[in-house]
Amino acid sequence: MKYISTRGDRSMVSFREATIKGLAPDNGLYVPVEIPRLDIDFIQSLKSIDNHEIAEHIISAFVSDDIAPADLSRLILDIFDFEIPLIMVDEGIWSLELFHGPTLSFKDVGARFLARCIYRFKETSELLTVLVATSGDTGSAVASGLWKMPGIRVIILFPEGGVSKFQESQMTTLGDNISVIEVNAAFDDCQQLVKTAFADKELNKKVTLTSANSINIARWIAQSVYYFLAYKQYDPDAELVISVPTGNLGNLTAGVLAKKMGLPVRKFVAATNRNRVITDYIQTGIYETKPSVTTVSNAMDVGAPSNYERLMYLYGNDLEPIRADIQSFSFSDENTIRAIRDVYRKTNYLLDPHGAVSYLALREFLNNNKEEFGSGSGIFLETAHPKKFAETVKKALPLIAIPQDISGNKPEKISLENDFQKLKDLIINISS
Ligand SMILES: *Cc1c(COP(=O)(O)O)cnc(C)c1O
After folding, report:
1. Which atom of ligand 1 is nearest to the CA of 354?
2. CA angle (187 as vertex; 191, 172 as ends), nearest 5
3. Atom 1 (ligand 1): residue with closest C-alpha?
4. Helices (H), 295-409
5. Ligand 1 center to residue 126 CA distance, Å?
6. CA distance from start to end of the chain
7. d(CA 295, ligand 1 centre) in Å
8. What H or E segment, with its residue span, contains residue 283?
9. Which own/partner pairs from 302-305 qualify as long-range (CB within 8 Å, at least 24 positions apart)?
10. Which domains does the chain have, with CATH numbers?
11. pLDDT in single tens digits along all 432 residues of the chain
12. Is the CB of 247 under 6 A from ligand 1?
């Protein structure tokens, strides 16, 4: 499989090059030249196929030119070494638990695959610096995937006050080749600093930089796998409706990719918090990026979703087919906290704030579409473990005990203003 840019540059690159480069030369995102259609037989017999084999079948359709089958098998055993169970929370309401990986969020799936790819594809003699901005979960997932890997430095930027205590501790206590920078600015500013770094000619002469952000093709492809695992475990008689808590649109567009490969998804629901750029777009047809605002589902505090171009590409820049596949709803912090409380009281199931937003959006969708989706069944993605967000869960359920098994290692972080020159000096310093 070869890859091209969403912006129309037709020069084709390998999976290896698309992964290492991150962005195409015209600043578009990489997409496969064509989307592989999986065999109907394969999709209909998922129930009897082992998870690793499913992952291998899907991923190999994208990477077989660059990773030999035996190596891919080993990689996949290594990456998918945790469960991704589908749990019925309430009548017809299913939670796909994507938080059983090492850093307790769905980001582990894509970040671990990307980390293994970066390590494989790098020249043995070179020192590679992985630069990434995080709203909380990407940083720890990428850091955990690349921790102690020889020849690799990881630099993580996070917004001051924008991540939970648990998330901060996960990133700052690793040490070794992981450097963590707390930026006195919002997540969108962190993302902008990273973009500026990649565009800076002088910096890129001195340091070999690579990105691990949610636009990276390796993360995107790996994330499509669990949509198939959800279907495998789902009620075969129910319509496949999947609610996805949405920020940068990496997760949702990976679902769309799965659908285009042949997964029989009837409807996606894009669930947002007050950062509702995509909800407004789908509801009104007007796409307008906005500065992000802070919410209790902080990993979705995105005002300019970086995978928007991929979404548009997948639907031929046309709103009508997007509307046919995706509905979108947005919820306040108050609603989110209430949902955590109500669901726990009713069912004993503890949602994290992101899962709570996707739960609410699924309910809203099913309520609004009783005639067409009479079975009233659907799946919401539970993207993080509630213990990562103890502060918010405690607001909903003050008496609940949430173990905070935070690492005993001494946390280390560097504080920085929103100043590119200072970041540049730091990157050069850390990478030498
Ligand atoms: C990153 C993240 C999201 C949003 O995913 P996108 O791919 O950015 O849309 C949702 N929930 C959690 C817990 C996350 O870490």
Report:
1. 11
2. 95
3. 299
4. 308-314, 319-325, 333-347, 353-368, 390-396
5. 32
6. 35
7. 13
8. helix 277-284
9. 302/135, 302/187, 302/188, 302/247, 302/248, 302/275, 302/277, 303/188, 303/275, 303/277, 304/188, 304/191, 304/277, 305/246, 305/247, 305/248, 305/249, 305/277, 305/278
10. 83-103+219-396 (3.40.50.1100)
11. 999 999 988 899 999 999 998 889 898 999 999 999 999 999 999 999 999 999 999 999 999 999 999 999 999 999 999 999 999 999 999 999 999 999 999 999 999 999 999 999 988 888 999 999 998 899 999 999 999 999 999 999 999 998 989 999 999 999 999 999 999 998 889 989 998 998 899 999 999 999 898 899 999 999 999 999 999 999 999 999 999 999 999 999 999 999 999 999 999 999 999 999 999 999 999 999 999 899 999 999 999 999 999 999 999 999 999 999 999 999 999 999 999 999 999 999 999 999 999 999 999 999 999 988 877 899 999 999 999 999 999 999 999 988 887 777 899 999 999 999 999 999 999 998
12. yes
Residue type at position 33:
V
Q: Which residues contact 412 (CB under 8 A, 6 or more apart)?
A: 172, 173, 175, 180
Task: DSSP letter for 48, please.
Answer: G
d(CA 409, CA 173): 5
How many residues would you count in the chain?
A: 432
d(CA 383, CA 135): 14
**Helix 137-146 and helix 107-121: axis angle, to 10°?**
40
Residue with tokens 């319509």: 239
Q: Is 422 a catalytic residue?
A: no
The Cα–Cα gap between 9 and 380 comes to 36
| Cα separation values, 274 from 183, 290, 295, 300, 302, Å | 22, 11, 7, 9, 10
